[in-house]
């Protein structure tokens, strides 16, 4: 059997006329970008403008008064006669002081003396803003700049502080979320590992069935926990961009969720513009919270029409919330002492959803004992959702 000799190595096809090659981007340090200070460039621009003004003025004056030699001589004699009548002797220094060039130079000195401190003050503010941006780029999340004045530079400094605060909040929230996730996932994973070890051993039927039920319950808990964490992270990072605004029948939506908890719904028939999926999640979280803290009595759910939108009230007959913890329970990963059941993200998610819909949620003590959570939601504009 014969084999043909190997051919030459294949070469890549040439680039077509429309093909583009992405050039590597080079990061230029900020110190190399600014080659001259701003005040020096503004001063140079002012000096050039004044020089141009002097040249134009000299050309115009020469054209008006010196273009005709006879008229120039006549004006000169008249000027000398007027000076002699006043008893003023002709002097070359006086002629120099009254020349357009001298006037322009004096004007430049006065304008420069006035504008130079202003330019220096402006450039110092911009330099402080640059230092703040560099500090934030060096991962100093607490970097802020002073807002001085009420001009465009002050507006830029305020916008930088707002953006830096938002970045710091997001980074800290993600750090807390990561720490919380790693801590909370250990418990169901450990229980699931024990259930799997039990299933791997020869056991009797009832023991095996109990281990299988425990494994399924732990899997369901893990699925719910991961879904809650992902939803909270997505709402925290994306904000109003995640909203799918459409018309929502709030009373019907509340009735659907209340039927899962065998709870009765009372109130007004309200339709508004909002994200049906998120509003359903908020109502479900409030009902789940009521069931966990008052398992022996169904929650009370009412829907009330308001000028801004709708108010949803979910009450239970549980132990209630201490007055000192009434706001703290809406912070992420906070659970009251002795009530460890739950992810610690249910109520913070409700508040996040409410604020995305232009409202809020707060706690009120139930008059007959227990807790009431009041969710206020406004009707959104599809073109401009609310910013939380």
UniProtKB/TrEMBL annotation:
Residues 120-172 form the HAMP domain. One of its GO terms (cellular component) is plasma membrane. Residues 180-381 form the Histidine kinase domain. It comes from the Bacteria. Keywords: ATP-binding, Cell membrane, Kinase, Membrane, Nucleotide-binding, Phosphoprotein, Transferase, Transmembrane, Transmembrane helix. It is found in: Cell membrane. It is a multi-pass membrane protein. The keyword Nucleotidyltransferase does not apply. PROSITE patterns: HAMP (PS50885), HIS_KIN (PS50109). It catalyses: ATP + protein L-histidine = ADP + protein N-phospho-L-histidine. Gene3D superfamilies: 1.10.287.130, 6.10.340.10, Histidine kinase-like ATPase, C-terminal domain. It is an enzyme of class 2 (transferase). The chain crosses the membrane at residues 42-66, 96-119. SMART domains: HAMP (SM00304), HATPase_c (SM00387), HisKA (SM00388). It holds the Pfam family HAMP. Its EC number is 2.7.13.3. One of its GO terms (molecular function) is ATP binding. This is histidine kinase.
